Amino acid sequence: DAGVIQSPRHEVTEMGQEVTLRCKPISGHNSLFWYRQTMMRGLELLIYFNNNVPIDDSGMPEDRFSAKMPNASFSTLKIQPSEPRDSAVYFCASIPGFAGNTIYFGEGSWLTVV
Amino acid sequence: DQQVKQNSPSLSVQEGRISILNCDYTNSMFDYFLWYKKYPAEGPTFLISISSIKDKNEDGRFTVFLNKSAKHLSLHIVPSQPGDSAVYFCAAPYGQNFVFGPGTRLSVLP
Asked: Is A4 on the interface with B (CB under 8 A)?
């Protein structure tokens, strides 16, 4: 069974450009999470969806960040315009059902904004 | 305000010795805890968990201890191996979410 799939694995972009990160959760999982990992803060939750509906986006840093989940098998995290301080690893994760006890992560998208 | 804290950003241990990674939490509503392990360039993977009705859970070389009165849990790795070198995150489900600690980087020296 395929795990959580993220793309791109690595992205280098110039400041001001739009960045789109993509995620395919594990089939059958109902909740999807976007996390950001930085040295200073560890794993920060940005937003999560349950049954494709955004439940809590209070972790989204600012209006430059947006996330969508148009269907159960796909989600995007968009940064527009990107800034150097957005450089981090972005993880997508999913869980089976509602408030499951184990969360499954993708391999991450490494973003560098220069 | 961090609800899950890992106060040691890094830990170095000699191969064969015991590694002890600590985690403290502030929310007494947490009733389940997980440890995740993360290698460079990979996503975190589930390692071991413990329910608040237990004070110990063991899986091979990995044992997690929970002290509810102190709101403290620890992960013991015995014996430590170089392949255990990774970042370890403590986490707790909370409502529909998961709260993660900042992680501890373990280095097991050969």
From this structure: yes
